[in-house]
C-alpha cells in the first residue's frame, strides 16, 4: 500500500547493512534513547517526588509496573514500524475514518502539549534553582529551544541521538551521586516492590506515574524512529532488526526506570523519612536538599532537571511532526510546529504563575501527567489491534500470550482512568455546587463522548476487519508516463544577485533554452529607498546594479543570445514574481545561497516564497561545495 515516509528527511538515513557484532548493535542503538527521555522528564519528577514524600517507598511497584507496560508497548511499536513500515499515526489513518483520525489527532496533540507543559515548567524551575532566574523569565526563555531543535535536526539523526544520550548520561550520573549522598534503606526499598492497595490520594498519583512513564506520544515516536535504520527487507533481516531494537529498548527504558526510581527513593529517604510528607513542589525538594545535605546535592538536582527538560522538548517536536503528518497528512515547517506547540504550553504556565503563584506550578505539573495518562487508551488500543493483524503482520504478528498481556495492561490503564474521571467529576460537583450545571451539561457530556470514541476505536478493527480507509497520499499516485516529449521554453528568467553563483545560474538557463529562447536577467534592488519609492529611486546602489546587469546582457548578446535586463524593487520574492507574471515568462532559474537552517530562519528563503507566487517551473541552482 502506498504511503508517505514517516520522518521523511531522516527515513532510512542510518545504514546497518554489512556490519557485524558490536558494530551492528551500535548501528541500531539510538531510537529507544530518544523515546526514553520522555520517561524521565520534569513531569516524572513531580509525580515521583510527590509519591516518595507522601507514601515513602510504597509506590515503587507502580513505577516497576509502568516500566513493564512501557517495555511491552514500545516493543509493539518497534514491530509495527519495522514490519509494516508505518508509524502508529499512519496505521490509524489506514484503518479509521477521517473524522475519527481528526479526533485522534486532537487528543494526541493535547498529550504533546501536556508533555511540553511539563518541560516548560521543569526548565523554568531548573534555571531558577541554578541561576536564580525568575520563573516568569524562565518560561519565556524556553521559546529559544526552537532554534536548538532546528540546528540538531539539520545535523542528522545520529548527531541528534548523540546529543540526547549525552543529556541522559548527565541525568543518570547526577542521580547516581545523589544516591550516595542520601543513603537510602535498602530493605525498605525492596519492600516497595510489593504491591499495596491504592486509596483515592495514591490512585491519583499512581495514574500520574503511569501517565508520566507510558506517554502516548512516545508510542507514535518509536514506531517512526525505528524506520530511520536502513535494513534488509527479507524475513531474516526484519527478524534481526526487531531483535536489535528489542535490546535497544530494554537497555534504554531500564535506564529510565533507574532515574525514576532514584527520584522516588530520593524523596522517600530525604523527605518522608524525616517527616516532610507534603513535598510535591520541585522547589521545596531543592530547598530541603540544601538544608539537609549541603550545596552539592541541590546543584546536581537542578542540573539534572535542566538536562531532562531540554532533552524531552526535542523528542516532543518529532512526535508532533509524526502525529500531524500521519493523522492529517498536513506538513508545516518543524520550527513553526515547535513554536506553536511551545506557545500552547507556555500560555497555561504563564497564567498559572501570574494567578496561582509559584506554588501552582507543581499541581499543574502533576495534572499534565494525569492528562497524558487519560490519552493512553487512544494510542494503546489501535497499537494492539495493528500488531495482532496476521494478514498484514504475517509471521511477525504478536502471539496469543503477548496479545493477552497487552490487553490486560490496556484494560488496567483504561479502567484506572475511568475510575479517576468518575471520582474527579464527583469531587468537583460536590465542591462546586454553583457549577453543577457546568459539570452536568458540559463536562459529563464531553467525558461520555470521549468514552464513546474509545469504544468505537476498540470495536471498529473487530467489526470491519481488513477494511482499510481510502487515504489521501501527500505525493499523489504515480501517473502513467505516456508523453515524454521534450519541453521547449521560449522565455526564461534568471535571477541575478552579483555573486559567484550568477555564472552557474546563467549557464543552466542557457542549457534549458539554447539560442532560440529569450532571457530576462532579473535583479532586485532591496535598499530602503527602493522599498519605499520603487522605480522612482535612483540612488548609488541602484545605479551600480543597473550598470552591472547591463554588462551581463552585453556579454550574452555578443554570444548571440537574446537577453534583456529587468530591475525589481523592494522585497525580492514579490518583485521577481511580479516580473515573471507580467512578462509571460515560462521558466525560472534561481540561485540558492546555500544557507544553513538558522540563516534561512533569520533571513527567509526567497526561492520558497517565489515558487508559491508563480505558476511556472523553477530550477534552483545551488553553489558547488568547496
Automatic annotation (TrEMBL):
Subcellular location: Cell membrane; Membrane
All copies of domain UspA, residue ranges: 489-622
Keyword Transport set for record: yes
Transmembrane segments: 21-39, 59-78, 99-125, 131-153, 160-182, 202-221, 251-272, 292-318, 339-357, 363-384, 396-418, 438-459
The keyword Oxidoreductase is annotated on this UniProt entry: no
Cellular component terms (Gene Ontology): plasma membrane
Keyword annotations from UniProtKB, A to Z: Cell membrane, Ion transport, Membrane, Symport, Transmembrane, Transmembrane helix, Transport
One of the protein's GO biological processes: iron ion transmembrane transport
GO molecular function: cadmium ion transmembrane transporter activity; manganese ion transmembrane transporter activity; metal ion binding; symporter activity
Membrane topology (UniProt): Multi-pass membrane protein
Source organism superkingdom: Bacteria
UniProt signal peptide: none
Pfam family, one: Nramp
Its biological purpose: H(+)-stimulated, divalent metal cation uptake system.
Protein family (similarity comment): Belongs to the NRAMP family.
Record-given protein name: Divalent metal cation transporter MntH
This protein's encoding gene: mntH
Amino acid at each position: 500500500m502506498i504511503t508517505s515516509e514517516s520522518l521523511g528527511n531522516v527515513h532510512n538515513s542510518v545504514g546497518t547493512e554489512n556490519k557485524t557484532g558490536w558494530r551492528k548493535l551500535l548501528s541500531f542503538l539510538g531510537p529507544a534513547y530518544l523515546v526514553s527521555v520522555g520517561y524521565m522528564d520534569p513531569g516524572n519528577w513531580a509525580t515521583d517526588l510527590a509519591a516518595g514524600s507522601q507514601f515513602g517507598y510504597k509506590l515503587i511497584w507502580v513505577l516497576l509496573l509502568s516500566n513493564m507496560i512501557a517495555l511491552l508497548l514500545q516493543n509493539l511499536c518497534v514491530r509495527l514500524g519495522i514490519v509494516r513500515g508505518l508509524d502508529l499515526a499512519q496505521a490509524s489513518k489506514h484503518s479509521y475514518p477521517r473524522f475519527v483520525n481528526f479526533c485522534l489527532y486532537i487528543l494526541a496533540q493535547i498529550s504533546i502539549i501536556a508533555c511540553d507543559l511539563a518541560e516548560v515548567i521543569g526548565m523554568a524551575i531548573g534555571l531558577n534553582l541554578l541561576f536564580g532566574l525568575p520563573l516568569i523569565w524562565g518560561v519565556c526563555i524556553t521559546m529559544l529551544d526552537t532554534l536548538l531543535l532546528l540546528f540538531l535536526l539539520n545535523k542528522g539523526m545520529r548527531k541528534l541521538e548523540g546529543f540526547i544520550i549525552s543529556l541522559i548520561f548527565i541525568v543518570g550520573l547526577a542521580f547516581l551521586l545523589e544516591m550516595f549522598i542520601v543513603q537510602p534503606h535498602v530493605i525498605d526499598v525492596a519492600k516497595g516492590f510489593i504491591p499495596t492497595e491504592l486509596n483515592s490520594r495514591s490512585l491519583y498519583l499512581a495514574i500520574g506515574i503511569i501517565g508520566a512513564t507510558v506517554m502516548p506520544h512516545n508510542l507514535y515516536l518509536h514506531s517512526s524512529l525505528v524506520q530511520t535504520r536502513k535494513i534488509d527487507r527479507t524475513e531474516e533481516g526484519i527478524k534481526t532488526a526487531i531483535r536489535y531494537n528489542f535490546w535497544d529498548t530494554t537497555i534504554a527504558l531500564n535506564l529510565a526506570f533507574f532515574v525514576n526510581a532514584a527520584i522516588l527513593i530520593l524523596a522517600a529517604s530525604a523527605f518522608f523519612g524525616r517527616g516532610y510528607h507534603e513535598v510535591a513542589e520541585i522547589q521545596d525538594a531543592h530547598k530541603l536538599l540544601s538544608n539537609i545535605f549541603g550545596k552539592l546535592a541541590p546543584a546536581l538536582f537542578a542540573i539534572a532537571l535542566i538536562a531532562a527538560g531540554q532533552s524531552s522538548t526535542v523528542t516532543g517536536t518529532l512526535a508532533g511532526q509524526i502525529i500531524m503528518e500521519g493523522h492529517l497528512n498536513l506538513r508545516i515547517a518543524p520550527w513553526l510546529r515547535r513554536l506553536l506547540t511551545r506557545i500552547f504550553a507556555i500560555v497555561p504556565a504563564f497564567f498559572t504563575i501570574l494567578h496561582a503563584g509559584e506554588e501552582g506550578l507543581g499541581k499543574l505539573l502533576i495534572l499534565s501527567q494525569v492528562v497524558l495518562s487519560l490519552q493512553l487508551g487512544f494510542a494503546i488500543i489501535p497499537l494492539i489491534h495493528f500488531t495482532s493483524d496476521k494478514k498484514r503482520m504475517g509471521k511477525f504478528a504478536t502471539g496469543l500470550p503477548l496479545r493477552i498481556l497487552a490487553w490486560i495492561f490496556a484494560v488496567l490503564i483504561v479502567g484506572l482512568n475511568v475510575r479517576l474521571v468518575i471520582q474527579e467529576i464527583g469531587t468537583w460537583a460536590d465542591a462546586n455546587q454553583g457549577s453543577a450545571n457546568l459539570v452536568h451539561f458540559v463536562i459529563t457530556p464531553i467525558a461520555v463522548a470521549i468514552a464513546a470514541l474509545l469504544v468505537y476505536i476498540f470495536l471498529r478493527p473487530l467489526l470491519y476487519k481488513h477494511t482499510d480507509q481510502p487515504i489521501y497520499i501527500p505525493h499523489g499516485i504515480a501517473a502513467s508516463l505516456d508523453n515524454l516529449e521534450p519541453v521547449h521554453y521560449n522565455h526564461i528568467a534568471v535571477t541575478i544577485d552579483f555573486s559567484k553563483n550568477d555564472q552557474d545560474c546563467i549557464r543552466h538557463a542557457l542549457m534549458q533554452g539554447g539560442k532560440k529562447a529569450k532571457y530576462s536577467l532579473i535583479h532586485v534592488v532591496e535598499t530602503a529607498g527602493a522599498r519605499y519609492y520603487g522605480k522612482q529611486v535612483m540612488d548609488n546602489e541602484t545605479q551600480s546594479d543597473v550598470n552591472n546587469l547591463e554588462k551581463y546582457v552585453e556579454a550574452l548578446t555578443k554570444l548571440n543570445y537574446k537577453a534583456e535586463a529587468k530591475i525589481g524593487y523592494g522585497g525580492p520574492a514579490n518583485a521577481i514574481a511580479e516580473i515573471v507574471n507580467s512578462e509571460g515568462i515560462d521558466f525560472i532559474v534561481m540561485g540558492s545561497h546555500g544557507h544553513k537552517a538558522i540563516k534561512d530562519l533569520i533571513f527567509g528563503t526567497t526561492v520558497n516564497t517565489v515558487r508559491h507566487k508563480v505558476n511556472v517551473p523553477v530550477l534552483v541552482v545551488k553553489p558547488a561545495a568547496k
